[in-house]
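Sanity check

After download, print the first record. It should look like this:
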Amino acid sequence: MSRIKAYLELIRYPLFAIPIVATLPGALIASEGQLTWRVAAALIIALFGYFAGMIKNDYFHRETDALTNPERPLPSNRLTPKQALVPASIIYALCVLCGFLLNVKAGLLVMALVAISHLYNAFFKAKGILGSLTLPLGIGMLNVFGALVVSGSVPRLVWYAFGATTLYDLGTHITTTFKDISRDREHGITTTPVQLGIRPALFLSAAATILAFVVALLPYWLEDPLIQKSYAVWVILGVLAAIITRIPLYLQPNEKNGYFALQGSMIGSIMFFPCLIGAQVSVIISAAVILPLLLVTMFLLRITRQEV
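Expected structure tokens:
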């Protein structure tokens, strides 16, 4: 049981909904709102690939974690580096194989996503703005992956989802680095706030987040008038979540408010990332997808003592 608990900590299980909601728009838009086996396959591959990336993150940063987060599974010796590296690599390989079994384009994109994850974890995470740009690109590309798995092509609406997701996650990534800013400075870890300065980093985060909401609303004005415009309710809820949880950080940029912004961003992501599925299905159906994921995430964030 202790080993299972250690692996659950490695994969950051309270964040399980993030790869799901990032993949859903592409998959459901491509399937025209139908929950097919290909939609399910896309979600499962994205979820396990995300978990593998989390494990690799702790593998590559185990020496730094020994100083900043010694209670994590690897620095605390509850798992060996090999016990992290091997399963993560196997999961990545299985994700690539499953992608190619679905179609060549999906397989190639899985390979690209694995490469992005590896570059972020192994090289770019502690490279300031470069790290803040790399990871959101991978999260945004999950929209494209979902569409390719389902149909082998990428509908125009999915590209709006890609842009909105990437920009929102860029803003999120910058704000969440504030939760460790003192430790990062102490140990010479370069994050975007450390590299650019606190105020420029907060400005960049705000600009990316605002642009994300604008991109998400573009179909409301530019696309087929027959789309379900009620999807805008999820954009509005995302705006509210961002404002409420980030204002304290902008007023007092410290670690406590950075962690609060992180939790708010997770909740906001679950409402915002899949917002464009509501352009093709009713708000009731989209709520039936989004709200359970939101409630489970809020529950896990509340009960877990793990720092996510």
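If your output differs, re-run the checksum step. Summary of this record's structure: The two ends are 21 Å apart (CA to CA).
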